[in-house]
Amino acid sequence: MFFRWEWLRPVLTAPIVPTLGPVHPHVLTVDLFEDTLRAAVTGRSFLPYDKDRRWSGEKDETVLRHGVVHRPDRTLVPTLSRRGRGVVKMFAYGHHDGVVDEAAGLAAQLAAVHGAADARVVRPLGPETGSPRGTRVQLQDFAARACPDPGGPVRPVAAWPAAVRETFASFATAMAADGLAFLHRRMREGRCGPVLAAAVEDRIVGAIGPLEVRPDAIGCPQLLPQYFGVLPEARGQGLGRVLWRAAMHWGQSRGAAYQLLQTEVGGPSDLLCRSEGLASLGFSRTTRV
Fold first, then answer.
1. CB 183 within 8 A of CB 173
2. Is 133 helix (H, G, I), strand (E, B) or coil?
3. pTM to 2 decimal places
4. Chain-centre distance for alpha carbon 30
5. How far apart are CA 132 and CA 135, in angstroms?
6. What mean pLDDT value characterizes the chain?
7. Alpha-carbon distance 103 to 117, whole Å?
8. Lowest CB count within 10 Å: 151, 154, 155, 187, which one?
9. Is residue 174 left, alpha or beta, with left meaning phi > 0 and alpha meaning psi from -120 to 50?
């Protein structure tokens, strides 16, 4: 075993694992970190519980095993993504500020070695962090409260009349920056779970999906993250909240124990999730080198 839990556990301020992203605190063990090293040996294969398996046959991001720094007071784990022109990310776990500078220097070196155009430092931070920036990791615990059907003008895309369904294409194009165009392609290919849509005056103006429940690393069913967006001109009417609650009702009614999300601090989704009572598990701050 490469990682020592007595070194790693004290610096895990937020439950974020390289190549896997946020995980539930009950899943966070040294085994996850060891699994990412083993996956790097096998090339671009997915771990069985990797949530990104639903999108591709090959894993885009792998750990650079020989670049890992593991010390009693800090752990630095580099990853390489070959997407686009290539990105090296250095996940910096440690309490002292110097860990970021060390991580930045190593990330730049590894980017040059591997021909990656971009180098970044990802620093997980605890939920107690003051004036946070970046993304917030939030937990929806389905055992904590009931998630009733909110009603409203929301139903699966496939359940809307054909004339309404046809408006999803223009909606997805307008919301491409939020991932809805990508989601629409997957829907046309029949390669994702159901998507809920809100319609006003026979036009789709909001959507959330795909909705899928899969087991985590210890077999606990989790509702996977979704793409989520409402057209700017349709905001302020409560449609985003209705979509969100409908998705949570879907997950809870299908046996999901929880959902993990990452939201931009201070953004609309972040504010919505905070107002819905989700628990903050920490933050992830990414800086370019």
1. no
2. coil
3. 0.92
4. 20
5. 8
6. 95
7. 17
8. 151
9. alpha
Q: Give the span between the Cα atoms of 70 and 18, in whole angstroms.
A: 14
pLDDT tens string 114-156: 999 999 999 999 999 988 899 999 999 999 999 999 999 999 9
Token pair, residue 245, equals: 């609650």
Q: Which amino acid is at 35?
A: D
Sign of the Cα pseudo-torsion (264, 266, 267, 268, in order): positive
Report the pLDDT value the prediction gives residue 97, as an integer from 0 to 100. Answer: 83
pLDDT tens by residue, 10-51: 999 999 999 999 999 999 999 999 999 999 887 767 899 999
Out of 3.30.70.240, 3.40.50.2300, 3.30.930.10, 3.40.630.30, which CATH number does the structure's domain 144-256 have? 3.40.630.30
Query: Taking the domains of the chain in order of start, what are their residue ranges?
Result: 5-135, 144-256
Query: For tokens 């004339």, what's the residue?
Result: 163
Enter the DSSP assignment of 46.
Answer: P
**Which is nearest to 78 in space by CA: 113, 49, 45?**
113
Tokens of 42: 């096998």
Q: Write out pLDDT tens, residues 168-198.
A: 999 999 999 999 999 999 999 988 999 999 9
